[in-house]
Structure formats: C-alpha cells, structure tokens
Amino acid sequence: MYTIAQKRLDKQEKNKELMFLFRLLTIKYRILYPIGGKSFTIDADLSAVLEHKVVSAVKELLQLKMH
C-alpha cells in the first residue's frame, strides 16, 4: 500500500513509473530473499495482485517509452 501511495505522491518525479516498478520488484525480491531468516509464504491472491501490479507497471513503462 505504501508503494502505491508513493507513486501518487511522486507526481513531479520524472521517472515515477520506473521507481514504482523498482519498488514492486524490491518487495517481490524481499519476500523470496529476506535480509534475515527464511523466505515468506504469501497467499496466492496476494501473490497474484503483486504479479499483476508488476506486469502493469512494465506495460505502462513500455507505453511511455514508445511515445
């Protein structure tokens, strides 16, 4: 939720779409490889939402680069 809120606040940021994608991929990475301890097991619904957000962010970034 924080990452989505940050995207909304970064209206003036030139690379806001890239930063949003980076934040999402960081979350995904930390779920699999936390700083300490075992990886997390997350619910399939939550995993699907995260995957959807990542794919949407990549799609949006590619559309911006083509224009």
Structure described in brief:
The protein has helices spanning 2-9, 16-32, 44-66.
What order do the helices and strands come in, and which of them pair?
Layout: H1 2-9, H2 16-32, H3 44-66
Helix pairs in contact: 1-2, 2-3
Give a written overview of the molecule:
The structure is a single chain. With 67 residues, the chain is mainly alpha-helical. Helices cover 72% and strands 0% of the residues. The protein has one domain. The protein contains three helices and no strands. The relative contact order is 0.13.
Notable characteristics:
67 residues, mainly alpha, 3 helices, 72% helix
Q: Structural class, from secondary structure content?
A: mainly alpha
Order of helices and strands: HHH
List low-confidence stretches.
none
pLDDT averaged residue by residue = 85
Number of domains: 1
